[in-house]
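Lay summary

Proteins are chains of building blocks that fold into shapes. Our project writes down both the chain and a compact code for its shape. Here are two examples, one after the other.
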Amino acid sequence: MKDKSVIDGDVIVIGTGIAGLFTALNIDSRYKVILISKTTIEKNNSGLAQGGIAVSVNKDIHFEDTLKAGCYCNNQETLKILVEESSENIEKLIAYGVNFDRDDQGTLKFTREGGHRQNSILHVKDATGKEIIKILTEEVKKSTNIKIIENVFAIDLITEENRAKAVLCIDEAGNKMIYQGKAFVMATGGIGQIYKNTTNNTIATGDGIAMAHRASVKIRDMEFVQFHPTALYNLKEGQCFLISEAVRGEGAILRNLQGEAFMGNYHEMKDLAPRDIVARSIFTEMKKDHRPFVYLDITHQSEKFIKERFPTIYQHCLSQGIDMAKQYIPVVPVEHYVMGGIWTDIDGKTSMEGLYACGECACTGVHGSNRLASNSLLEGIVFGNRVATAISSYLLKYDISNKVLDDSIDFYSIEKEDKRDFSINIGKFIKKLKDIMQNQVSIIRSEAELKKAFIEITIMKESLRKNQQETIAYYELNNMLTVALLIIKAATKRKESMGAHYLVS
């Protein structure tokens, strides 16, 4: 095999968000773990999480709140695990050094967010994810059994008889390599970049879900795409700045352009209703007023409180000319999270032998059709820990050969004699995809619009197939188109509205 290297490890973890890092740290230290990041280890969605991490202060209430937010279609077995194992995994974060906010007596401070009936969310001011990722990254870098590989893009799984054997990767220079292992973990995060407006990092292109789908691994619930109700309104497209749900947890009120509070017209929990309801309510108010935003009002709180509790949000709003202590914040719903993904059992095992998944790219069913606020970071550590435990047992139990024969590998090489049109403009394709998803597969959907979107994206996918390129940009776009089609197919099949999937005639 010329110019293509093969690297061996026991466990290959793809993704360096909270799920990937926590999994890597909790795998038995006797095993060599290779941790692959498509950019740098610090660049991930988890680090953008502002509000906090839910903990089961009262297990019954947390269970019921999550079930209600998910429209009662949650997997109750995995939900029970989330609730039962929340505290022990939070304790691990604290032991690693995560410094959650405490009062003057040293007692942990809890806040409240949408869909929660009690204050049950730990936080580090308004940058909880950033603090957790910083601490976990430091721990990973100290671990002698974990090797970090940065700026390497995972193209596809190499499989044999429904068993994961290796992963084919490419670096920025176009060099390809194979990472062989005995167990593999998909922890690749979300899909937000297929939408014009999203809270997600630019890396969130659905890579793990697309890879798993191409390997015939079971995918489910892709129709359930959550839109966060409150991102800062900005005329620029792309990654949007999130105004944390915790702002409403501290009493902020959503108002229409006339300054009227409106959430009482839509739900008994008003501004702290579940996200799907708040997002649709805002969308309805925007249509009524023919304006692209509504307002969020936290001016009842003191400037001192706002600066201390929400320093990041306060400074960002100020940089945009908005003093949130004195002015209303213009907000709009944007894509935030996908509840569906790679199907897993209670231990993160997928339908393929040796392949596990956790975090946003996985579908444990714990969220149902709409995720409860601040359950995402919790899911990442609870099921990341379970994946690590399951893999450690799996490697002890089985004597697995991870030999990959050189002549069995398809490197997707494009022969020079092939006459292909390389004039395809990937940037234009991405823009078109984002426009289609934003306008036709959004908060409120119709069968006609879904059908139209499916046809348009299918044509784009076929055009891309005929114009293959060996670049990260090409592989990434291919993943984005694949995931978009998975969402549309699932949305078309589900004829009833449920949670984040809302159909109109």
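And here is the second example, written the same way.
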Amino acid sequence: MNPSIKSVPTSAEKSELDLGYYLDMVISHRWLIAIIASAFLAMGMLYACFASPVYRADIMLQVEDSSDGVAGGNLVSSVSSLFQVKSVTAGEIEILRSRLVVSHAVDKLKLYIDASPSYFPLIGRWIARHNADGLSRPGIFGMGGFAWSSESIEVDQFDVPAELEGEHFFITALGDDSYRLSGEGFDNPVEGKIGKPETFRSSEGDVFLTVTKLSGKRGARFKITRSSRLTIIGQIQKDLEIQEMGKQQSDVIGVALRGTDPVLISKIMNEIGREYVRQNVDRKTEEAGKSLQFLQEQLPKMKAALEDAEQNYNNYREKHGTLDIGTEGKLVLQQSVEAQTQLLALKQRRADLLTRFGPEHPSILAINQQISELEKASGGVDERIEGMPSTEQDVVRFERDVEVRKALYLALLQSSQQLNLLKAGKVGTVRMVDSAPVPEVPVWPAKALVIPISVLVGLVVGFAAAFVKTTFFGGVDDPLEIEQRAGLNVYATIPHADLQRGITAKADAKSPHISILALAHPEEPAVESLRSLRTSLQFALLEARNNVVLVTGPAPGVGKSFLSINFAALIAAGGKRVILIDADMRKGHLNQSFGQARPGGLSELLAGDASISSAIRKTTLSNLDFMATGIIPSNPAELLLRPRLGEIVAECSRIYDIVIVDAPPILAVTDAAILAPHAGSTFLVARAHTTKMGELVESARRVELGGGNVTGVLLNGIKVLPGRYGYGSTYGNYRYVSYDYTSEKS
């Protein structure tokens, strides 16, 4: 008969089991998770308080339609329709980010020179931000030169050899408008004057430095770095946040930059905005100049063509007189004039664009497509003209030539005047709607965001740490897992006995048995679990070959001696005659729990120096006798291999109802494997969250190799939560909890 019942969970049970497993893991490691989350919260709060604030400066630019440029929109609209291409926002964004625009701000503000006070690590900047009144005493106890207040420095020139770009140099205030420069390339510090251009010779070449302003007491230290110009330009290009505002094709561009110096990023943004507008004006002015030059070349030709057309028409009328072409002829004439005017205008526009772009440019290709379509439409009108009488055809053609040439000439003349105005006015197609004020409120760190994120990250890391610890470093804690993976029945799960340490400390020689938990606190959950084991053992003994119960474990510290002595006390309390044998002749100490001496026990009995009657000792507990280890021998395993062991076990088995043998750890020494063949039942004690699955499997293998058979596993040290409901270790779909079910007082 097998008292342990195995069951295969259904898929729904497995899902619930998985959830329970993770809940158990979280609760078992709640302090680890709480500590990690608290640590991340503390780091987040420190970061939110001490991190340098980051500000955001932004500008807004509008890319205007070329036809909306100057006052008198109708005047410029004809120029746009003939000679200009509307700015594309995507293209303007790339121009904004170009080196042409960004380099101007870098050069004007000398952004490749980084000069700032030297602050104490981590907290120095924070202290300086909150202590801006006056100048501080540099350093710590006069050492280090750290700035603690409103110290500042301005450097107009700092040119170093290419080999020293990116290296840190240090300027130390000496008082009397003097300073000392030290750093890479200088074997000895050099001195200079504030406001005076200085030239210092380094190991890599000359260093040119002009300090225009230095505000700090004697000993104050400043860090200065000369970076590569191209590196700084590239960094700003990367850091610029550029996007089209509002809906698509709004033609409004927002540009922003983040940094720790609000004044500096405001200056950078405004310089970039102004330079972008200036570049746009210059580009449009240059385009207007090229278009104007082209028109001035075309106007005399168009005027001569107009005069020729008028002369030809006048000659025809003098020869044939005035003719009426009728209503239909006038309609055809109007359509032909419009088609030819548009066609010639497009050809003029294409010729203008070809002076600036190649033949494969998208604008040129688009105009070619329009010309092709207009030529088809014009061909249809020409067919209608050819269907008219020959005299009317001639009149229509002569009048059409005059009207087309006149319209083109007047349009070119007006365009020339408008381009002159545009060139003189230096008007571009973009404008800066909003400049960048100095930001007052930092955008980062945002405490309302940093702290919750810190807690969230801490919880995630805590859960991960708990998972890793449980998966890779934790021991067994699930009876079902032991049964499935090790093939061993779990006879009992014993909760962790928190009271045991306290009662052990209170025990003394007069009442040693008080250190036995089953006697001191019989209502303890661990004791109740052993009572369940006592019931299960009765059925197990029915199939066992004798009444000898061997208790061992994979390694020291699993609680086998605690279980042995309490289990023996409970069986004795149930009316059975029990003997507890301390067979750990290396580190056994059960004699202390009974207040008895070690000598005169098992080792002497095996050596033939004592009799069974003298080795068996009475205890203060009814029905419970005890056999100590005896004097610790030098060869415990050899003693156990003597035939005398079988005789001792058989005699004890005859005298007592149950013999409980507390054996040493089987993975540590071979003693338990020698004792196992003499026992009818062998139990392995595993400590929850400590004993590894592999240790259990190997322990069972060694018992079997020694000729014994493992009856089951006692899972000790299970952590439970008090109360009616709680989560502890899982067994199937259940959780181990402690229930308050004490007897009522009469």
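What can we say about the second shape? Residues 113-227 form one domain.
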